[in-house]
Amino acid sequence: MATISVRTRDGELHSFEGRVGASLMENIRNGGFDELLAMCGGCLSCATCHVFVEELPASASLPIPSIDETELIEGSDYRQENSRLSCQIPFDETLSGIVIGIAPED
Ligand code: FES
């Protein structure tokens, strides 16, 4: 079982089983967290899938953000060092235990 924990904007932490092969964004949306808007559906054009990676499992690594992802995140008032666009992160077993916070809405 590969789990994802999501901190919603009210500060609550929710854990659920993730679907391997789907993006983190798809997993969060499928988990019922509608406050992650993901308006472009993962086309890398909206930045409304912005999350903070609060905890990463020790053996896990994330793909290096593309220039387009970096530029979109730089446009957010809430950008942090651990900011990522969740549509750009494929979820797999190595990420089981990841803790994600949904960024405030820009
Ligand atoms: S869903 Fe639009 S950039 Fe990720």
Automatic annotation (TrEMBL):
Record GO terms (molecular function): 2 iron, 2 sulfur cluster binding; electron transfer activity; metal ion binding
Record organism: Rhizobium gallicum bv. gallicum R602sp
All copies of domain 2Fe-2S ferredoxin-type, residue ranges: 2-106
Keyword Magnesium annotated: no
Keywords: 2Fe-2S, Iron, Iron-sulfur, Metal-binding, Plasmid
Entries under PROSITE patterns matching the protein: 2FE2S_FER_2 (PS51085)
GO biological process: P450-containing electron transport chain
Name of the featured protein: 2Fe-2S ferredoxin-like protein
Organism classification: Bacteria, Pseudomonadati, Pseudomonadota, Alphaproteobacteria, Hyphomicrobiales
PANTHER family with a match to the protein in the record: FERREDOXIN/ADRENODOXIN, TRANSFER PROTEIN, PUTATIVE-RELATED
Keyword Iron-sulfur applies: yes
